[in-house]
Amino acid sequence: MMDSDAMGARRLSRRSLLIGAGAAGAAIMTAQVAGAASPRRHSGARSLAFDNTWTGEKVRVTYFENGRYVEDAMHALDRMMRDHRDNTVVEMDPRLYDLLADLNALMDSSQPFQLISGYRSPTTNMILANKSRAVARNSFHLRGWAADVRLPGRDLRQLAMGAISLKRGGVGMYSRRSNFIHVDSGPIRKWNI
Q1: Domain boundary assignment for the chain
Q2: Exposure on the CB side of residue 153, measured as CA atoms within 13 A
Q3: Could you tell me whether strands 146-150 and 180-184 are parallel, antiparallel, or unpaired per DSSP bridges?
């Protein structure tokens, strides 16, 4: 039996995980490649960058270094993820930030994520759920476990398939009018893919 460190050494490079296809450049992940993808172990610094589509704010921080989360950087990310409708800031799940950092690395991108939604207050979530059946009444956004994002230069399907390959939570693709993917640190599941 192979231990997890030996299995980690057999992981494929991030470039080999994604294969561009079609005129839109959508990614196709074969069963073999998807099965080989796994969360990477963080030993070094972790960084994230966001552009908030609603407020115009931008943030680029190293939120983990020297084996620890950086408190000021985590606060900056939490503020970016706030409910912009009522300015409610909560402590977001660090696993969500780790998932997004890994997704950005997997996509081999230096671009910031465009943030559509992070935390949602109960009032905001109820308003959105009343307007759209696509909004869950008990959304992980309410817990600070979810983000709706897009990544410039990357096709939504490519981004969604990359998030699915990480096997770290829920992934939903909203491509019709909204043009974003949902990622969360809850149970592994997928929809609208």
Answers
A1: 45-191
A2: 8
A3: antiparallel
DSSP code for 28: -
Q: What is the pLDDT of residue 193?
A: 62
3-state secondary structure of 69: strand
> Is domain 45-191 annotated with CATH 3.30.1380.10?
yes
Q: Which residues contact 33 (CB under 8 A, 6 or more apart)?
A: 12, 16, 17, 165
Mean pLDDT of the chain: 81
pLDDT on residue 128: 83
73-99 pLDDT, tens digit each = 999 999 999 999 999 999 999 999 999
Residue 36 Cα distances to 16, 30, 55, 85, angstroms: 11, 10, 38, 40
